Amino acid sequence: MLFKLLLSACLALYVTALPQGKANFQKRARAALYTQCTVPNTVALTFDDGPFDYINDISKVLKDNNATGTFFFNGNNYHCIYDQDSVDHVKYVYDQGHHIASHTWSHPDLNTLTADQIHDEMWKIEQALMRITGAYVAFMRPPFGNYNDQVLDVSGVRGQDVVIWDFDSEDSVGASAQESKQKYDQIASKHPSTLLALNHETYSTTAYDVLPHAIQVLKAKGYNLVSVADCVGKPKYQYVGAPEQRTADWHC
């Protein structure tokens, strides 16, 4: 209960600091759940578990092919998001026009947490991304794709839609690069109207082998390679302001 009261106070202060009408944390409905894109002929290439070492190269491959990626970031998973290299990576892909979103702070199974714990997991990554970029995220992906009504309710309070996927490259469960490429070949041959593709930026094979192949195959089918926000027809962020200067509070 104490955490909920403190959270409400913090959110009220944050909303007060925003320009009129930019955010409203009151009377939010349960979060929308997206398991696929809704805009025809779009593919959203998404990348979980970063920021990680290969992210700038992933961004370059995307930009060289007129594609926009969506990066679901953790705060303290493979790296601490406040490490200077991680800060630079987040800022770089954001400045390149890619879409950044929440994957929670420490990558827990949200189904095992209380509502207060879910709020804490979401707030800490939101705060970090606001500090680094100035953007308040509008989308979150629950770790492992696990969610329940409580997760959707908390996300709704925080103004964020929940995003899963309808295609998995399976890079995180042991698929080789060749197997992941074959999966992209197989789904492209079926030519669904849209595709919401799960990848992980923490594998060099995904960055340097699978991604270039996937882009080539998908572009050959005529898909537009866009952000999650664009593939569901919604704004990328709830609010965009100025990034902050580093302080002693920037730590995991």
Automatic annotation (TrEMBL):
Entry GO MF terms: hydrolase activity, acting on carbon-nitrogen (but not peptide) bonds; metal ion binding
Xref: Pfam families: Polysacc_deac_1
Topological relation to the membrane, as annotated: Lipid-anchor; GPI-anchor
Gene Ontology CC terms, in alphabetical order: plasma membrane; side of membrane
Signal peptide interval: 1-17
Alphabetical list of InterPro entries matching this protein: Glyco_hydro/deAcase_b/a-brl (IPR011330), NODB_dom (IPR002509)
Keyword Iron-sulfur on entry: no
Compartments, record wording: Cell membrane
Reported cofactor(s): Co(2+)
Name of this chain's protein: Carbohydrate esterase family 4 protein
The organism of origin for this protein: Crepidotus variabilis
